[in-house]
Amino acid sequence: MDALVFLISGVLMTASALLVVTRKNPVYSAILLVVFFLLTSLNFLVLRSPFLAVIQVLVYGGAIMVLFVFVLMLLNLTEEELDEKVEPGRKLLAGAGSVLLFVLLAWAINSSDRIQAAGETDLTGPVKESVARAGETREIGKALFSEHILPFEFTSILIFIAIIGAIYLTKTRRADHRRTAEPAVKQPEESA
Amino acid sequence: MTLSLDLCLYLCAAVFSIGVYGVLSRQNIIVILMSLELMLNGVNLAIISFGRYFITPEGSALSGTGASSSQIFVIIVLAIAAAEAAVGLAILLAVYRRWRSTRVSDMRLLKG
Question: What is the pTM of this model?
């Protein structure tokens, strides 16, 4: 039953991921990306990670998607700007490259002794008693604040730096307005 | 019906490859950033699959906080993905303000 849920949501995940990268309008891509994140969190649940399933919905489906949709709204792109002109050759090359990458990854999975040793071990089956609660909030909290405290603190510093960087990059300065009124550097659109 | 480790990993590989296709083929930076998120999700799912495999009775031995390690990895990847999205979109806004374009082919200031 669990395996069936995983398979169905896996197929839907692949389909929605394909739609995300092929839709012309980024708003549709954003909505399909939310669907993709929800299906991923379902798969996390099947793989016994309830805490991560919740975090996936909160952080990806909530925070990151709000950021994307907000930026789409701020940019207020016109039809003309949304019209991407991608040469077919480029699309073909990208397709060939990613198919090649998938074949390589599949080959690596197929030829890895370690992964093949897992064989038909059922990932929805029974777990070892001593570590059965590994995906639950209490166990994650214990691990995060004892063994993995250093990476955790580094992550907090990184996020702090990212906040400062994001605010600095998006801040409008008075000097910028003067510059946009009289461009010092020739804009690329004009030279094209 | 059983769910084997390779099946999960094939799914992750497929999602990752689709993300790569998006990054390579699209012109719109917003969609490129979304494709990056797809790639990160594929990797997260792979880490979780391995973590799940290592707590099955047939999997290799893990004890204490070691069993939660995969979850910690994913939490940190998630935090970094959030930071990356914030900075990436901030750069996108700054670029759009300057050049009125979200196409990657218009950004060639550093092209030799």
Answer: 0.88
